[in-house]
Flavodoxin
Amino acid sequence: MAQASIALIYGTDTNNTEEVGHKIAKQWEELGEQVDIFNIKDIEISQLQEYATLILGVPTWDFGGIQSDWEDIGDGLSELSLENTSVALYGLGDQFGYGDYFVDAMGWLYEKLLPTKATFIGQWSTAGYEFEASRACIEDKENFIGLAIDEDQQFELTDERIEQWVIQLYAERAVEAA
Ligand SMILES: Cc1cc2nc3c(=O)[nH]c(=O)nc-3n(C[C@H](O)[C@H](O)[C@H](O)COP(=O)(O)O)c2cc1C
């Protein structure tokens, strides 16, 4: 089956990750490509295998906890085959309220997807954030595995971060496809 282009899939409890997802998709569509948007609770996870590029969004809840709809399908995620898929992650969190667990769920999602052989794109610098620890910093504290968005403490930076990140993703994906 021919691969469709891009899907953005989010889970959310209070809609921030959905709203940010729509902004990311809009930004991408301004570059000329359509993005299919889904709530993870409304789809079969096998559908993730139908796309060449996936943008996956997850908020962190309750001291490093995983948004429940993502957590429910965690084991299934590891069984997917995403060998030819570029995957970009974004995570929502609150760096001052939960600075020891900032956007931890994004790190969890990365760990769950490692066995799928996906190609991860979209690492993002931790410069400009203040936090103690994050599971989403995979090697050191210099970079997150994906885009960290803080609607609670730094909402004024969200649009600019999204704009820069989407341009970065677009370029990284082109390199992967070459
Ligand atoms: C009770 C509670 C627990 C939270 N726990 C964390 C946490 O451990 N780490 C973090 O980075 N953010 C935490 N947050 C912040 C949320 O991730 C943040 O508000 C996010 O934007 C919610 O996204 P959603 O609206 O898509 O569910 C917590 C918020 C609340 C109210």
Remarks:
- The longest helix spans residues 158-177.
- The chain has a mean pLDDT of 95.
